[in-house]
Write a structure and sequence with these properties.
- This protein is mostly beta strands.
- Helix content is 5%, strand content 34%.
- It folds into 3 domains: 244 residues, TolB, C-terminal domain (Neuraminidase), CATH 2.120.10; 152 residues, Sandwich (Immunoglobulin-like); 265 residues, no CATH class.
- The chain has 5 helices and 42 strands.
- The protein is elongated, with a radius of gyration of 36 Å.
């Protein structure tokens, strides 16, 4: 079929003007009519989930001001494009009605009650729909009706016979008497915006959705004589424009397949309490490896039925004043929001209790860092995590997809003393066992150490954080920190928090196969740094900010005395990257380590022992002298000062002439000061 034929069919379709049959019964579904050429959607008010019901209404134009007539089970609406009142059947196709008496203007606000169609624009209009009425389809304006309300939809209460609406500009809740069109202001709803769709359900709850963000709000009008006008956010629905909502007000809300929370009811868990709920109709967004089961009872919680499906979140120790790692597994990309009840008061309402906000997740595993307040008290509390295609979600209310998972967690109070060490700057020449250009800028790392200990002087954790200052190497190097004499077995590996370049790292930095604690900060600094220069921060003609940072929080098992910890600054070292060239006859990968002077290699670097004494190295392990040249110069050193490194291929002794005396004789301990350095040879000092 060619394009011309397709186009010729469109006006014929719009021109057939034959509506479908009436709805069989008063439907549970809320209908949303939207767009300049109307499409019809079914909306689940509990969750905001929606589906397309009709993309061809049988005529051209935008349908608005819609209402459901329980007398004949048809929808009545106003075609704002053609300025016609229409009748809509169960197939959502529209038929023009011959209505007289309306001004020649579009109407956007309307509803049906008592077999009468009510429209609003600068006043209230009525159109009888009873064919036996002598004024059938004859519109008339209600004399004296209020014409100053800023409305985009209203809805009839299923019991008291009045109209209710939210003023878009003022955010006020109105009760409108359909007999005289006069309003009574019931109070401030607390929200403003364009509320293009309004609905009631059988219990008397009033629902209205805001166009710009799709949020569905509710006000309980089940007792019209006792109304709290404050609106409650209820669900996350579709964003809308040129829209109108319509629903049979006598129908209750249908509880369909939902995923619910598990926390105690004080945390708003059940549907009756506007608890978190996620639509499971065709849902493929969930946490963990098991899709959530579904509940259909509005008073239940998730664990009362089906399987225990809380398997998508792992949380490390929640220690007051410390960071914790939240590791999340997602079935596919979506957004995560999370809360922890820090003060254990039975809600997630306090200002600091939303710990994860609209964090975008990819499919698979993601780790996030949260900070535990200093003020927490030891005890049990609850955490809630919501995953959905909706970016921002509160701890309550509906969502059109995804999952909610609640966890009981333990808080540990902050009762530790803190000792801080550093900053230290460790610098290395990576040509060992050859002297190379001896610019000592192949790897320059600045870092700090923090040790927390309890009242019994037992070490609870060690935190090391740092920033790469320079990477002037042709070879590819990794960087690690060895904690001599601290057994690997005392590390609480499952609770380590490892962050590189601001992002949590799932893989543990604690190296396997070592007798002591060895933390591998980077397997390949070149890959982690991604510099835009040939060398990172060693060339004056290519200066850039630091591009690699890290922190490792290493918890220790109970009973590790502070006295048993090695002295700061520990033992930083660099090592060759597996599979990469690192010099003739010395390309042995991870087995090649370069340490500070007089520090032996780790358990995984026995190959380095075989290179000691070769080329320019004159190590003597029997005398405890390692990684030194014949003149006693080291391939790595550390300084507890802010130190400026040499530029590329400038010998350290040219930049700091007294460094030789310091290394070989122990004199000139101030070798690094301004008076004893040659600034023109230092990076960033010209």
């Amino acid at each position: 079929m060619d394009r011309k034929v397709i186009l010729s069919l469109v006006p014929l379709l719009w021109a057939h003007n034959v509506s479908g049959a009436a709805f069989d019964t008063c439907p549970y579904t809320a209908f949303l009519m939207q767009d300049s050429q109307t499409n019809v959607y079914g909306v689940n008010l509990l969750t905001g989930a929606y589906q397309t019901l009709q993309t061809d209404i049988g005529q051209q134009g935008n349908l608005n001001a819609a209402g459901y007539n329980e007398a004949d089970n048809f929808i009545y609406a106003f075609n704002t494009t053609r300025k016609k009142v229409v009748k809509v059947g169960n197939d959502f196709t529209a038929t023009d009605l011959s209505v007289s008496g309306l001004p020649n203007t579009p109407f956007y606000v309307g509803d049906v009650a008592n077999n009468t169609y009510y429209l609003y624009r600068s006043g209230l209009y009525t159109i009888p729909l009873d064919e036996s009425d002598p004024n059938y389809l004859k519109a008339s304006k209600v004399e004296g009706s209020d014409g100053n309300m800023k409305l985009t939809d209203f809805a009839f209460h299923p019991e008291d016979g009045n109209i209710y609406a939210i003023d878009n500009k003022l955010g006020l809740l109105y009760r409108i008497n359909p007999d005289n069109g006069q309003k009574t202001t019931l109070g401030d709803a607390g929200v403003t915006g364009t509320f293009g769709a309004a609905y009631f359900e059988a219990s008397g709850k009033f629902y209205f959705s805001r166009n710009k963000d799709g949020i569905i709000f509710t006000i309980d009008i089940s007792d019209p004589d006792n109304i709290d006008p404050t609106a409650t956010q209820f669900a996350a629905g579709p964003n809308s424009n040129l829209n109108d909502g319509v629903r049979c007000a006598s129908a209750p809300i249908e509880i369909q397949a939902l995923d619910l929370g598990d926390a105690p009811e004080s945390y708003q868990t059940s549907v009756d309490n506007n608890g978190p709920r996620h639509d499971q109709s065709g849902n493929t967004l969930y946490l963990g490896g098991v899709a959530p089961d579904s509940e259909t009872n509005q008073e239940s919680s998730d664990d009362e039925t089906g399987i225990d499906d809380e398997n998508g979140v792992i949380i490390t120790t929640l220690q007051g004043g410390e960071s914790a790692l939240v590791t999340v597994t997602a079935s596919q990309p979506g957004f995560l929001n999370g809360w922890i009840d820090w003060n254990q008061d039975g809600d997630f309402a306090d200002s600091n209790e939303k710990v994860i906000s609209a964090n975008a997740l990819g499919a698979g595993m993601t780790s996030l860092v949260i900070n535990v307040p200093n003020s927490v008290t030891a005890g049990e509390t609850w955490a809630r995590f919501r995953f959905s295609s909706i970016e921002e979600l509160p701890a309550f209310g509906g969502a059109p997809d995804g999952e909610v998972e609640d966890y009981q967690v333990t808080l540990e109070s902050a009762q530790f003393s803190t000792a801080n060490y550093g900053p230290y700057t460790a610098a290395f020449e990576d040509s060992w066992p050859r002297a190379g250009d001896y610019d000592l800028n192949d790897v320059v790392m600045r870092y700090r150490i923090e040790v927390k200990s309890d009242q019994n002087n037992n070490a609870a954790q060690v935190k090391i954080s740092g920033t790469l200052q320079a990477l002037g190497a042709d070879y590819k190097n990794g960087f690690g920190i060895h904690l001599p004499s601290l057994s690997r077995s005392v590390a609480d590996e499952s609770n380590i928090i490892f962050i590189k370049n601001g992002e949590p790292v799932i893989d543990s930095p604690l190296e396997a196969g070592q007798g002591n604690v060895v933390l591998i900060i980077s397997d390949n600094l070149t890959a982690d740094t991604e510099t835009n220069c040939r060398f990172h921060r060693t060339l004056e003609n290519c200066q850039e900010a630091e591009r690699f940072s890290f922190s490792v929080t290493l918890p220790l098992v109970d009973g590790v005395s502070t006295a048993s910890l090695p002295d700061a600054p520990f033992d930083p070292f660099i090592f060759a990257v597996d599979g990469m060239y690192h010099g003739e006859e010395t390309s042995i990968g991870r087995g090649l380590e370069i340490h500070l002077d007089d520090h032996p290699p780790t358990d995984l670097a026995n190959a380095s022992l075989g290179l000691m004494g070769d080329y320019d190295d004159r190590s003597n392990s029997g005398l405890g002298s390692q990684y030194r040249t014949e003149n006693g110069l080291p391939w790595g050193f550390i300084i507890a000062e802010n130190w400026s490194h040499p530029t590329e291929r400038v010998d350290m002794l040219q930049a700091y002439p007294r460094f030789f005396d310091f290394c070989t004789q122990g004199t000139h301990t101030d070798w690094y000061t301004k008076a004893k350095r040659v600034s023109q040879h230092l990076y960033g000092m010209e």
